[in-house]
Amino acid sequence: MATGCLAQPETEPSPAFSSEKEAFAAAEATYRAYVHALNEVDLSDPTTFEGVYAWTTGELSTSDRKGLSAYHADGVAVSGDSRIQIIQRRSIDETGVVTLAVCLDVSEVQVVGEDGGSLVAPDRVRVQSLLVSVAPDEASPTRLLLTSIGAREGEPACV
């Protein structure tokens, strides 16, 4: 009975997800939603950029905002969709940051300047090998946001 009067030790906050499997599934869903939002962008209509911004934070958000705004200002047009070929779990750290290995097929995506000329490099890799980081949103820990997307080496191989 006396223990009810004693100060109880502080406990660690509960994790955003009950398991690593749940965290990886949420990270994958977040990345898929981001790619879908990118595929829906109409560079002539900046309101379509909002769907992309909703899935990013930090430097990635800043980069996406600058890039899409510059394309819009320069009269660039994009057509075709990116398609996810592979998403593989890489890691999850103690802060809840999930890392995914991704193979993203961009072979159907065409980017054309205002003059009608292609802005796609002739040697563009058709399937990009990416490392994607997804972190809990500070405002809502069960919501994830993309924090970085970069080049990746190693497995899984993207073909």
**Helix percentage range:** 25-40%
**Which CATH architecture is right?**
Roll
CATH fold node name: Nuclear Transport Factor 2, Chain: A
Average pLDDT value?
Answer: 90
Note the main sheet.
4 strands, antiparallel
Any idea how many domains?
A: 1
For the record, the CATH class is: Alpha Beta
Q: What is the beta-strand fraction?
A: 25-35%
Provide the low-confidence segments as ranges: 1-14
Shape: globular
Q: How does the helix and strand content classify structurally?
A: alpha+beta
Radius of gyration: 20 Å
- Number of helical segments? 3
> What is the terminal-to-terminal distance?
66 Å
The count of strands amounts to: 6
Strand order of the largest sheet: 2-3-5-6
What string, H for helix and E for strand, traces the elements in order? Answer: HHHEEEEEE
Characterization of the model:
- This protein is an alpha+beta fold.
- It has a single domain, classed as Nuclear Transport Factor 2, Chain: A.
- It is built from 3 helices and 6 strands; from the N terminus they run H-H-H-E-E-E-E-E-E.
- The strands form 2 sheets. Strands 2-3-5-6 form a 4-stranded antiparallel sheet. A two-stranded antiparallel ribbon has the order 1-4.
- It is globular and about 50 Å long.
- The termini are far apart.
- The relative contact order is 0.18.
- The N terminus is likely disordered.
